[in-house]
């Protein structure tokens, strides 16, 4: 059997009557005859029975996801540190010559293009998710594995390219926002709150740029890589990273827009 | 291309050239290799370079403290600012590139997969990238010695405002920038390495390696890796902010209207150096546990091994490892009692810090209970493990003293603290590393075993000299000897009397410290002699029970496509019989005949 990989959240039990066929399906129904635990060497060959490390592509997928989870956990700590400094700086001040406590925090007015950027990034997350889901559609997966064209890779590549486009659009939008602020003579070193505007948006943009690099890498893998499972893992990990960066941006945007 | 296949007589020049190319090819393959064993040796090489340099720097500091007029060869007298540069580079090299790299990344790569019954790490390519990033970080740090005005002088903690402005002194320009860049690289490399380690532990354990069966060493690595992922990210953020303060005109850590070297800083905003202290020590205290937790785990396993007993309260040891890690995140404020922190916050940090004494004491009790009356075989690795326990107690007992703000206020900037962290972190950490080296050497050097006689000489000399060097620092600290500074000159009479009273102690420490460093030559002699000798130990010379000693664990597949048989675990570690005479290793399938005995 092919290296069919169905992550738990992708299973679609919307039609319980069809789902009931499940175990004893002989392939005559609409679902392809795949036992997800099978190893591909005929009867009795079952990934679940083979030793740790040989459980098939599911293992590779969960390894990539766990690694990404820890890496992004560390990355979130990076932003947690920056954001805690934001709140400290916002509430701190100094004493002037008359021993008066002065809090000189001047909120930076956020360019309204950021609303548009946020919408673009959210839409890009939707298209990325569409790419990820299309990588795990069983019927097309079977076709592709058998060699009847490359339906899923093509569709995923399309969705990923859309994501790439939207992501680039977001970065261009951020550039416009920086440009607008510069036209108002608000630079990084203007005041305490502008430090944070640039710091948070630029560090997030760097992360998103890495995400775009990952999208390009995933597209290259879709075109070049022969192993279906490897393609699936590449798209899956890239899209999860993209989602996290999207959620992070929403959080940062709320912080910059409403919490200054 | 072709190796000299039939070179039976005297080797031809072509044969020599081919041999030479083969050797170069081997080195080149090792450099681009993604095998965790090569990467582990790479990390140990980084640490060895750093520890030798760090020791030389500490000698220069010690000699200067005892004989202030001493001329450093090829350099001249050590000026006060140069002394600060020595302190900075000694601390940075030892903390980051020795105590973090060697136990966590070095031995983590060499031994951890084998202890889990895995043949590889989760992300080999990322692993190699992490190692080369760390190597790059070391190079960048060392370059700071050779730039105009030399190495940074702000200490390994780089407190602003002095670290935030090139005005603060020599080395605070390019030198400090290189330090920042080096540590940023180190943070990235350390995080990648920790992610790889964590994923390996979570996903690549062999069949039967359930969590309670995982050796305590791996629990140590796991906890340290979790701390690394959290702490290094925060340090990276802090380094970025400090860089902005230095070059982009921000003032996260700079107060308004601050003067440095009688120049008014042009920064806007109202930053605070305390903010840096919070961020830095949020990283800095977990860092201490990153350095020591693998050693703690190893000590438990080695004592169990040589005492031929199960580790006393095994599950409790797992819990205490995690608890020490967890509490380690909450106590950063105890480094800041004298820095102007709110006293109420100080109380909270003091309580949390003293709470760490509970799991730490549980660990010490387990070590003692495991070894108690077991008539252990006192081999060199066992001696180093017991030495670890001894140093851990000697250094640790002063922990609860320093955790109290009112006592810390007097002691914080004295040699008392130097004694404390050198015993509990530096010396205990180094003893953990030696324990690991002597214990695992047969695995790493293809069955060669380090000389026991030389090893015991090495151990006793190191133990005695470590105490001789660092215990008197407690006395110096109690007498008020300040740390960080070069030998103070031109003082008034009372201060001179104060320093004079500790002069003998200083002389003694210097002598002992140099002897301590020289004693380590014994280890290197042992290493070279053993590597040249053909003596082969058996497959499991210590009668160990953990998976790394299973036969063929360290074999590599002869053909790239061929897989080796998978490994499986059948029981927890340290499965010794009541009298300690026989044992069942983790990889041995359960005996068939006795039906009801097994447990």
Mean pLDDT over all positions of chain A = 83
Portion of residues in beta strands of chain B equals under 5%
Query: Helix count of chain B?
Result: 18
Strand tally of chain B, please? 6
Mind telling me the C-alpha Rg of chain A?
Answer: 24 Å
Number of strands of chain A: 2
CATH hierarchy class name of the largest domain in chain A: Mainly Alpha
Q: Give the overall pLDDT of chain B as a whole number.
A: 90
User: What class would the helix/strand composition of chain B place it in?
Assistant: mainly alpha
The CATH topology of chain B is given as Cytochrome C Oxidase, Chain A
User: Helical content of chain B, roughly?
Assistant: 55-70%
User: How many domains make up the 3D coordinates of chain B?
Assistant: 1
Q: Specify the CATH homologous superfamily of the largest domain in chain A.
A: Cytochrome c oxidase, subunit III, four-helix bundle
CATH architecture of chain B: Up-down Bundle
The tally of helices of chain A reads 7
Explain what you see:
The complex is a heterodimer of chains A (260) and B (599). Chain A is 65% helix and 2% strand. Chain A is mostly helical. In chain A, strands 1-2 form a two-stranded antiparallel sheet. In chain A, a hairpin with a 5-residue loop joins strand 1 and strand 2. In chain A, helix 3 (113-134) runs antiparallel to helix 7 (228-258). The model of chain A is unreliable at 15-36 (pLDDT under 50). Chain B has 599 residues and is mainly alpha-helical. Chain B has one domain: Cytochrome c oxidase-like, subunit I domain (Cytochrome C Oxidase, Chain A, Up-down Bundle). In chain B, 62% of the residues lie in helices and 2% in strands. Chain B has helices spanning 13-32, 36-66, 80-116, 124-143, 174-203, 216-247, 273-307, 314-330, 343-355, 357-371, 380-396, 399-402, 405-411, 415-444, 452-478, 493-501, 503-519, 521-532; strands at 71-72, 76-77, 259-260, 263-264, 575-576, 583-584. In chain B, the strands form 3 sheets. In chain B, strands 1-2 form a two-stranded antiparallel sheet. In chain B, helix 6 runs parallel beside helix 8 (314-330). Chain B is globular. Residues 1-9 of chain B have low confidence and may be disordered. The A-B interface holds A 50-54, 59, 62-63, 66-67, 70-71, 73-82, 85, 88-89, 92-94, 102-104, 188-192, 195, 199, 203 and B 117-119, 122-123, 126, 191-192, 194-196, 198-199, 202-207, 209, 229-230, 232-234, 236-238, 240-241, 244, 248-252, 255-257, 268-272, 275, 279, 282, 563, 566-568.
